């Protein structure tokens, strides 16, 4: 079991947190800046878009903007798989493997984007998009244009997002987060500028989802021209096949996992738009975005911690891994409990200051969001460790079960009761599909992970 190098100041902060802790703090600092910019974009764009579009079109806008999360799993998990493989190769100090993995992942993702483009070209003119957005038929053309912009942005994001995952795997997350911050600031500026002149739904959608791609392209350009990541040798066909197989195998598992998560969470706004109309979707979106500051804040830790977990597992430092998992779980739950309680209690004041109007929301819904924030914080702390350890089969079983229970329950609740109980469906489904199995199988899962060779 490897140990971290001793500090020259044994009683200082550096000795207490260690080299990995310093990396987490440094990357987390830039993640804080990026997430702060994302939060500013998330909250500040809402009143401008709401004022420019009105309640009905605003509900369609937030639904469209939420669809950019598709880029997170339409890469078929190859981004996360690449990050794990690069973190392992980087920990072994194998520059050749790092360069080869990057080369193969780029090639694979370009192929994925090409396939998605063909599907989008066929779907855009055929599907009645205005119906799925809860818009009248008179808005069919405008809805189709807005959807086309979103789908094009998602397709472009699939290969462009690889730069962020690679830099995290290399321990250079600060570079990725700098570009993310620039993209979010640019998107906010574009939305505010267009909203001030009452631009159309399509233009405001494009400003929100396409502008960040400019920063992603610049991030990729800087990575392409990094001499340390250039393949300077002719890799054997056998080696290329092995690396390609590893990327696809790891990526497919992550894709199925991401797909189940998307089914559980990304369907909320489209379901509300279909069954209840875009106005209620807009109300739900405001509540959802307010409580999203909790996981957004915690992601400052999860993003850099994932590849560092992987590097520690490769180095055989199981003691550090388990100690960090224990501490992160406790701190995440405590933060989420306090933060969500503050948001629930002060909801009226927060919303009034945010969108400059009152919002009638049942206390039951607010309590549901608050409880879910706590469960989500604990679950993400554990999932970050399991993802780094490539513990995918267990997660696939529990996540698919959760997705089916969650989606089915939400469809029934939205159609028959309303939007108030949606977060409670998520809580109950998560307890049944994730919490109970983890308590039952924890003594088998964790020892097997720590005994595995990476």
Structural account:
Helix 6 (about 160-170) runs antiparallel to helix 7, helix 11 (about 270-275) packs parallel to helix 17 and helix 16 (about 365-390) runs parallel beside helix 18 (about 420-450). The relative contact order is 0.12. The chain has about 450 residues and is an all-alpha fold. It has one domain. The protein has helices spanning about 15-65, 80-90, 95-125, 130, 140-160, 160-170, 175-195, 200-210, 210-225, 235-265, 270-275, 280-290, 295-315, 320-345, 345-355, 365-390, 390-415, 420-450. This is Membrane protein involved in the export of O-antigen and teichoic acid. InterPro entries: Poly_Biosynth_Transport. It comes from Rhodanobacter glycinis. Its main location: membrane.
* Residues in β-strands, percent: under 5%
Helix content: over 70%
Catalogue the unreliable spans: 1-16
Query: What is the H/E order?
Result: HHHHHHHHHHHHHHHHHH
Number of helical segments?
18
Question: Total number of β-strand segments?
Answer: 0
**Ends: how far apart?**
13 Å
Morphology: globular
**How would a crystallographer describe the biggest sheet?**
none
Class from secondary-structure proportions: mainly alpha
What's the domain count? 1
How large is the radius of gyration? 22 Å
Mean pLDDT: 84
Organism: Rhodanobacter glycinis
Membrane topology: Multi-pass membrane protein
Subcellular location: Cell membrane
Transmembrane segments: 29-52, 58-87, 108-133, 145-164, 176-195, 201-218, 252-274, 286-309, 329-347, 359-384, 396-415, 421-441
């Amino acid at each position: 079991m490897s140990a971290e190098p001793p500090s020259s100041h044994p009683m200082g902060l550096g000795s207490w947190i260690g080299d990995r802790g310093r990396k987490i703090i440094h990357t987390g600092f830039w993640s804080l800046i990026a997430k702060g910019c994302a939060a500013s974009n998330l909250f500040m764009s809402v009143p401008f878009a709401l004022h420019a579009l009105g309640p009905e079109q605003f509900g369609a806008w937030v639904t469209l903007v939420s669809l950019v999360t598709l880029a997170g799993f339409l890469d078929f998990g190859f981004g996360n798989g690449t990050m794990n493989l690069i973190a392992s190769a980087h920990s072994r100090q194998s520059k050749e493997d790092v360069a080869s993995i990057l080369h193969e992942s780029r090639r694979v993702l370009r192929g994925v984007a090409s396939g998605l483009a063909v599907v989008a070209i066929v779907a855009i003119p055929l599907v009645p998009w205005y119906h799925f957005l809860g818009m009248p038929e008179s808005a069919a053309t405008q809805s189709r244009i807005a959807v086309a912009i979103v789908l094009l942005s998602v397709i472009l994001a699939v290969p462009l997002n690889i730069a962020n995952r690679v830099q995290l795997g290399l321990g250079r997350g600060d570079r990725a987060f700098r570009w993310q911050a620039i993209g979010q600031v640019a998107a906010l500026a574009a939305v505010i500028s267009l909203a001030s002149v009452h631009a159309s739904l399509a233009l405001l959608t494009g400003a929100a989802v396409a502008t960040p791609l400019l920063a992603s392209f610049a991030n990729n350009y800087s990575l392409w021209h990094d001499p340390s990541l250039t393949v300077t040798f002719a890799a054997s066909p056998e080696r290329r096949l092995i690396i390609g197989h590893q990327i696809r195998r790891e990526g497919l598992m992550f894709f199925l996992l991401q797909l189940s998560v998307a089914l559980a969470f990304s369907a909320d706004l489209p379901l509300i738009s279909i069954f209840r109309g875009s106005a209620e979707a807009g109300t739900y979106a405001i509540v959802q975005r307010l409580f999203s500051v909790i996981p957004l804040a915690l992601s400052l830790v999860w993003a850099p911690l994932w590849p560092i977990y992987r590097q520690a597992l490769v180095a055989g430092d199981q003691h550090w891994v388990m100690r960090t998992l224990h501490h992160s779980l406790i701190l995440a739950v405590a933060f989420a409990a306090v933060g969500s309680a503050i948001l629930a209690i002060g909801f009226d004041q927060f919303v009034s200051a945010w969108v400059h109007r009152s919002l009638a929301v049942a206390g039951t819904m607010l309590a549901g969001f608050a409880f879910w924030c706590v469960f989500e914080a604990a679950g993400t702390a554990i999932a970050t460790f399991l993802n780094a350890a490539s513990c995918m089969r267990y997660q696939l079983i529990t996540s698919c079960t959760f997705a089916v229970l969650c989606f089915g329950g939400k469809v029934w609740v939205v159609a028959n009761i309303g939007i108030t109980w949606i977060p409670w469906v998520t809580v109950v489904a998560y307890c049944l599909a994730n919490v109970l199995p983890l308590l039952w199988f924890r003594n088998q899962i964790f020892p097997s992970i720590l005994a595995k060779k990476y």
